[in-house]
Amino acid sequence: MKVESLLSFTCPVKMNSGNKVLEGLPFELAGLNAAKPLILASPNDTPPKAIKILLSAFGDSKMTFGLFDGIDEAEDLGTIEYLKNICQKDRYDALIALGGRAADAAKVLNMTVSYKLPDARLLTAETTINKPLGPLVVAITAGATGLETSSLAHFGNRVYRSEYLAPSLAVIDPRLAVSQDAAAMACSGLAAFARAVEAHGAVPENPFRRAYSFAAIRFILENLPAAVSNPGNRKAALAVANAAAMSGCALADGGNTGLHKIGQAFSGTGRGPAGMIMAMALPYMLNDYKVNGGFDLAALLHPLADDDTFAKTPESERADAATDIANRFVSGLQKTAGKALPRTLKETGLPGYLLEDLLETLDAGPDGARLCSVARRMWDGVSPDAKKG
Amino acid sequence: MARVREISSGRKPLKRAYVAMFLWFTGRAIQAAAKADNQVKSEFEALPENFTFSLGCLPDGPWMVVGKKNGVVKYLGGKLPEKQHVRLAIKNLDAGFLILSFQESTALATTRNRLVTDGEVPYALAVIRILDIVEVYLLPKIIASLAVKRYPKHWSVARKLKGRIAIYTRALLGL
Known about the structure:
heterodimer, A: alpha/beta, Rossmann fold, Dehydroquinate synthase-like, alpha domain, 2 domains, two-stranded antiparallel sheet, 8 strands, 9% strand, B: alpha+beta, Nonspecific Lipid-transfer Protein, Chain A, five-stranded mixed sheet, 7 helices, 6 strands, globular
């Protein structure tokens, strides 16, 4: 393994994963010097049962807490302003986010409350975040976005980025990780897979990042098919939720995030979860990396295959072997999930005008031209190695 | 728009009652075992005078406090003293229920980060050894094997039988 002369990696998230870890929350909050948390949940991506499980975990703790289960798709800064005033008036000293959407809102609220901003509506993507924020706990649920543990907050059409946005603690309990929805499970796992694949091959190599991405890829390969065929399988669902959490941590030092950008831009159109489109884009992105370089495809073979296969494969063939395994894995899941995981943008029902909006969003970044080319090829499923349009 | 609701954490009376009952009986059984079993007796003899330890659940109990005064081991009830040599605290009532209903052994619960120990490690280990011996006496083999790390193979039938009768009788009568 090569070691760069200078590397940095920050992931301040403590992870508690396993049976009955939710019940440990009062103890963990006491360790964070918090006694009165505010719980945020979204009715759209958190079933009422999950809220009930979380509330019952506080039983016998003698704590008082607030519950706001109205984080909606509109992602309005007015809601954050309302919550900020409540936090200040009722002296809530920690935030607990249940699910991905609530985690994004909680990060923005945490920023507003900790920095004592006069009005949350003044927040912009350029707002400087250079001081530690208050305690934030995220509870990973089925259909995790994977961004809960990251240092990113997507709220409305804004993206905030700072290592201080990452939560203090992530709890992954199998009771919250199981689901009835195989498609949501597949999308959550595929988003984690795509992010981890991109983080693992990113150059320059960072061994800390690779520790997270390696584990996330292996967890997904070994457990996602079982979790999709039976989303109530506690062991498999817990492993997928762990992989999602790890994929968020692997994003900590930036690196290549093309797939992540495509996924977020698509989920911003409201036509489906990011994981669906990231799985669709993966073969195109891997092919682009193969053609254009700037990505260590060969290194991907190790987490994707077993140790023996990696050792036996000549170095010159590793990139092709890795691409082949990743593509076959995604394609197998798409076949199992059927219409829930479309293979082209057209099949998602995305209207042409929204495609234009999507391309405009993608084009705004530094690697916009490349991402737009990928999105155009995904529209009607042109073969990944066809000439770029 | 939805509003923030302020909620107080509920209670878990059944789990609490089970854990309290278990700790109460175990406390009395330790007092009994200190008289009836030579190994427990010698463990306590190695501990300092006025040694006190507690086992229970955070944040609000129930607790079991056992102390040694003038060489005599006594169950001191469920109220935490101001000073104690060792405190074995289970992080929450649910974890306490998992451990004390033998769904998780003490060793497994420790690796799963469910316990906090305050005090000197050698003392804490002595307390764990005492608790293991008492559990072997109190529970049938099939359940005790779940509760302790290794079920003792070398104990004679006579030791188990005599010890069980003595400890149960003394614990029930509070002797």
